[in-house]
Structures
1.
Amino acid sequence: YGTQQINENGHLTIGGVDSVELAKKYGTPLFVYDLQLIRERARGFIETFKKLGIKAEVAYASKAFSCIAIYQLAKEENLSLDVVSGGELFTAIQAGFPTERIHFHGNNKSYSELEFAFDSKIGCIVVDNFYEIELLKEISEERKQKMRILLRVTPGVEAHTHDFITTGQADSKFGFDLNNGQADRAFLEVKDHEYLELLGLHCHIGSQIFETDGFGLAAEKLMKKQGEWKEQYQFESTVLNLGGGFGIRYTEEDTPLEPHVYVEGMIKTVQEYAAKLKLTMPEIWIEPGRSLVGDAGTSLYTVGSRKNVPNIRDYIAVDGGMSDNIRPALYDAKYEAVVANKANEERLSTYTVAGKLCESGDKLIVDAPLQQVESGDILAVFCTGAYGYSMASNYNRIPRPAVVFVESGQHQLAINRESYENIIQNDLPLSLKKGEY
Ligand code: LLP
């Protein structure tokens, strides 16, 4: 993946840095991010729009991995930002991210989160539901402050990896249904509002998608709706946001497309329908999360105990697990790994990689082909950069790992390892007196 290689000691290197040295210096479990790969991906999306002469915003969907340093990298790479909570917005602002390039998502934004967005003068709120429209009207009118908005719609196109399905009505907690009049009602509620400036429509059809037809079909549906609104109300939208969901390669079964292929695919459809329906070509916004940071992240663990279940399998246990990567337990997600200090040896053995948490489902990889493993070896699990750290927990009171960034032979801490002190920092002593029963 990315800049990974094997050095003269047989160690895995990332960004020109020896992963075994990183494990020694920063401890394990450790997330290592290869910045070059993130930059290349970001540029892959942005340059494609430029080449095609299409105005665009590529917003990093930061739920995939959020911290101050990654927001600063996103700023350096001219990305916009998709945040989904006050916490992500706060982190982005602390990072010095330009607020006019921040888009705020979520199906239940609180009043105070929305006020925070207005205070911060963010670029756009992606409106999800009728309750939110009420809140936005109230806040914007009270402040006499403008806010740009998109309406999130569910187009009845749902895509996963190789397939997509279309349904008349999507059973989704997100957005206004495009097919049953909800989206039209929402449009009528906001189109002439004094302070809410409607830019256009948004949809997100799924995650880990390996084909372009689903995006094309969604684009077609949204463009047709915009065509109707132009005809009936002379409303012309300026933005079409087609969400994220571009796939990455976790294992060899996954066959993602290059960023430019996804972009070219969707642009073709939008241009076709813009011409057909005599609409001005809108700006295209997209929201890649996983495809920017997913395969740039590698988790390093130290192997501890081992167990043989005769005639069934060999287990090796690492010093993290579902507390830093819940995806195998939650989604049955698959990963590949190598022994980082023996990366030059062939993977002729098979082990099930267990975590250290008190839960039998805490397995990172079942039956992984690996080098011969001994206690003390460093295990590198690939492609953990998206929804790994960001979904980490303190289950079993395990401190969250540290995060290190590497690039061109340099390395730096991006997030400190949590300490036991951090873990108890919000705990308070028992102060109630024993009751009488
Ligand atoms: N935009 C919207 C509105 C989204 O809901 C999402 C992801 C994205 C963009 C970014 O999607 P991506 O490019 O990362 O696929 N925790 C799950 C993934 C949940 C995705 C939620 N929404 C996982 O670990 O696979």
Note: The chain has two domains: 5-29+297-384+401-422, 35-290.
2.
Amino acid sequence: GASLKKVIETKQFNAFITVSKNEAEKQAEASLQRFKSKQSKSDLDGVPIAVKDNFCTKDIKTTCASKMLENFSPPYNATVCQRLLDAGAVLVGKTNLDQFAMGSGTVDSIYGPTKNVWKCKADSNDFHIAGGSSGGSAVAVASGVCFGAIGSDTGGSTRNPASYCGVVGLKPTYGLVSRHGLIPLVNSMDVPGILARNVDDVVSILNAVAGHDKQDSTCLTKPFKKIRLPPANKMGIKGLKIGIPIEYNCEYLSDEVLDMWDEIAQTLQNEGAIVKEVSMPHTQYSIVCYSVLNQCEVASNMARYDGIEYGYRADDDHSTEKLYAVSRRTAFNDIVKNRILTGNYFLLGRNYEKYFNQALKVRRLIMNDFDNVWEDAQLLLTPTTLTEAPLYSDFIQKTNRDQCAFQDFCTQPANMAGIPAVSVPIKLSKNGLPLSLQIMGRNLSEPMLLALAKYIE
Ligand code: GLN
């Protein structure tokens, strides 16, 4: 009850699209009864969790922050939501995002931008962005109204807002957590992400949602062993090989983030880890390669929104073609439309080889960089975002928009390779905003990855 009240009261950040008050109250009441009769289902029983609004929730609006799905209520729960409910968690509501998870700021939602909680003045027109596209989920956690939140991560959408909002954000290994019911962006890269205030809380949520699901054919079949991290005072990093990929020191990296990265690497070395520079020469191609693959998959994924089967239907019924066109033109924003057009161009018979197939080959090279680096390092330490959270007024300027893809420079490669990555808040910048670092590991290395995250948090 208290938590729901807080969710409703923290409206000024615009973190939630829908607060599922009635359902959450029922779930909370049931949890209380279980607690009284000593039948709590798990450590998440009764715990408030928010879910990004691109995960299907039975009979609760699932909008993807788009006019296209403004009135869409799915008939089923995404596996992640169902598993949280089965663990007794209370799903308090659906969080804001960039339309169809396309973006890195949570500024392109039909419900308006989400505001970062840090240095946020409720009455000011300008504010620091929350990052994105899971900005609503990050703010639901950072504002203290939720224990944890579910985001999605295709190129950085969980880690980027986690970094800007000063919370922990995990992108699990591709296939470890089911995508069933997650509205797709890039099927071969999408994963549900987890945001919470500390690493132990992330682990509790991961333990509840991970593991095989027969409704997602890309879900790993290997049984998932629940993760138990040692207590912080029993942790050692002696002999742990940590790689510092030099190519992540890129053009727009701020001095403050660079210094912090150096400082933590030095500290880890002083405390017994073997820290050394490694090279991943194809890193710089990740963003452009991603944009080709993303646009191609978007062109195909968005084809289902035709104004007939799902979502918005325009009044224009002169012809079926006209109905499709007007529905799509009216209900998608310019970013979605742009990606559909470009994607279809890349997929034309005469272009397919040149763009799509070429991008797949570059993706393979980026994946190979990771395969090779694991011979020298067990984990990699990099920045998550290049700067602290930008001001909204700066972020939405045209020139910065064009550079927007750079937001994902450090996070995107992990999605190409499918490997796990976590963003951990480290300290505050001179301006009093959170700065974070990212740790990456090989496939299914979550226990080791999260142990190091806990060590440095
Ligand atoms: N910023 C990237 C994009 O716009 C990644 C988004 C995401 O991870 N969902 O596609």
Note: The chain has 15 helices and eleven strands.
